[in-house]
């Protein structure tokens, strides 16, 4: 159950006023996505004014709705789901019915973008593959998100974030050298794939402004995961070097790692010689070491890491974090307290950026919101509204987008377009 007292203590979201229309106003997106990579991509489009219509199965909706924590008052709007689906409309369609499929095709025919991340072959079985959709709408940008791509020997494989972390080599690079590598707690590959998909969609829309023609866009989780191994991939390709697991220290810079003050752990990253000198002269009061002819050279410091860390550990342990933080900031040494997620969300840094707020919800009153990290001065993100209930906007979409009247809606209901639900259930939004 949601902690409503905690939610009510969050600041109310304040949208940035703008005289200009949202960046993506007028753009219509048909969203056939589920879980993380697809929904997070379409949410970014929705945040900046696109009309995103999420098509999902009647009654239960997509499985991600039911990931914990789920509040009994809104049983199909768990925390993970509302994180990735704000500013969207939900249209509940039985895609296995002829009537439901016909509605989907009518929407596609007038859409700008279609995004799907089903298993390979699902859209083909619906008759909604790119070739078929392009015939309905040659201007359509059709974004397909998959695990290993839509063609080739591995197109049939299912894949989730930790699988991509494992197979890309990413896990092998993270953790400590005396044990197996570890995955990240957050779904970083899903998030990165979502960002890649959004970029690809916007690029395709830019191309369409030149020639008026849409195209197929493809983004694969595995491809993105290879990119996320960073420059280590190129180090290997140029030298054969296999990155080692270094825990919290850096193989390239020193001193970089986690240190402990009297009361709190923190991270320091000395990316170059000048930072090292400022750290030891201005923060630790050791100018003798700051300008030592050996230690003042990055490569030489790597060879002396253990002795340098011992000196720093002994010094930092003498004072609390409140003593060291202002000194590190004044010396312009990159640093940060190692925080729990809760501490980070409640931090002054997050508060000053307006990242964690609350927004209205028709049932709960308020729900938490994590603001978009994208800041556009002239065309900022739109005022956020909560992720929808299953089929919440079915009637609205049918009437306002497709122009259906009562008789047409009742006819489609009788034909099973909305699943085994009552006619009243179609009118959730009214």
Span from first to last CA? 27 Å
Radius of gyration: 26 Å
Q: What average pLDDT do the residues reach?
A: 96
**Major sheet characteristics:** 6 strands, parallel
Shape label: elongated
String of helices and strands: HEHEHEHEHHEHHEHHEEHHHHHEHHEEHH
Key terms:
alpha/beta, 19 helices, three-stranded antiparallel beta sheet, elongated, 430 residues, single chain, six-stranded parallel beta sheet
Describe the structure.
By secondary structure, the protein is α/β, with parallel strands linked by helices. Helix content is 37%, strand content 13%. It has 19 helices and eleven strands. The strands form three sheets. A six-stranded parallel beta sheet has the order 3-2-1-4-5-6, with helices on both faces. A three-stranded antiparallel beta sheet has the order 7-8-9, covered by helices on one side. Helix 2 (37-47) crosses helix 8 (188-211). It is elongated. The two termini are 27 Å apart. The mean pLDDT is 96.
């Amino acid at each position: 159950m949601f902690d409503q007292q905690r939610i009510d203590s969050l600041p109310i979201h304040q949208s940035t006023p703008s005289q200009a229309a949202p960046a993506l106003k007028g753009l219509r997106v048909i969203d056939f996505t589920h879980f993380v990579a697809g929904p997070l991509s379409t949410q970014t489009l929705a945040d900046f004014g696109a009309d995103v219509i999420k098509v999902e199965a009647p009654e239960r909706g997509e499985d991600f709705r039911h990931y914990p924590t789920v509040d009994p008052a809104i049983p199909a709007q768990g925390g993970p789901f509302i994180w990735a689906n704000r500013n969207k409309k939900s249209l509940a369609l039985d895609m296995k019915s002829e009537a439901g499929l016909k509605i989907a095709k009518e929407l596609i025919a007038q859409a700008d973008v279609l995004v799907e991340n089903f298993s390979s072959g699902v859209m083909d079985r619906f008759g909604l593959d790119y070739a078929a959709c392009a015939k309905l709408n040659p201007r359509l940008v059709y974004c397909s998100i998959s695990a290993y791509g839509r063609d080739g020997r591995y197109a049939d494989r299912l894949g989730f974030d930790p699988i991509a972390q494992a197979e890309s080599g990413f896990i092998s690079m993270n953790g400590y050298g005396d044990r197996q590598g570890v995955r990240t707690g957050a779904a970083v590959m899903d998030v990165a794939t979502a960002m890649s998909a959004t970029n690809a969609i916007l690029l395709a829309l830019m191309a369409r402004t030149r020639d008026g023609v849409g195209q197929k866009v493809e983004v694969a989780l595995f491809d993105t995961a290879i990119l996320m191994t960073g420059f280590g991939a190129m180090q290997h390709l140029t030298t054969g070097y296999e990155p080692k697991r270094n825990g919290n220290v850096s193989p390239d810079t020193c001193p970089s790692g986690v240190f402990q003050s009297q009361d709190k752990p923190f991270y320091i990253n000395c990316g170059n010689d000048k930072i090292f000198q400022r750290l030891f002269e201005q923060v630790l009061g050791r100018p003798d070491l700051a300008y030592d002819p050996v230690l003042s050279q990055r490569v030489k410091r790597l060879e002396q890491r253990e002795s340098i860390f011992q000196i720093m550990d002994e010094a930092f342990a003498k004072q609390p974090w409140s003593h060291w933080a202002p000194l590190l900031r004044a010396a312009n040494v990159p640093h940060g307290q190692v925080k729990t997620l809760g501490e980070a969300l409640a931090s002054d840094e997050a508060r000053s950026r307006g990242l964690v707020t609350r927004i209205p919800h028709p049932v709960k009153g308020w729900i938490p919101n994590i603001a978009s990290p994208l800041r556009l001065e002239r065309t900022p993100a739109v005022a956020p509204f909560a992720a929808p209930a299953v089929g919440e906007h079915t009637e609205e979409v049918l009437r306002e987008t497709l122009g259906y009247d009562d008789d047409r809606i009742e006819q489609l209901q009788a034909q099973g377009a909305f699943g085994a639900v009552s006619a009243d259930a179609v009118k959730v939004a009214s």
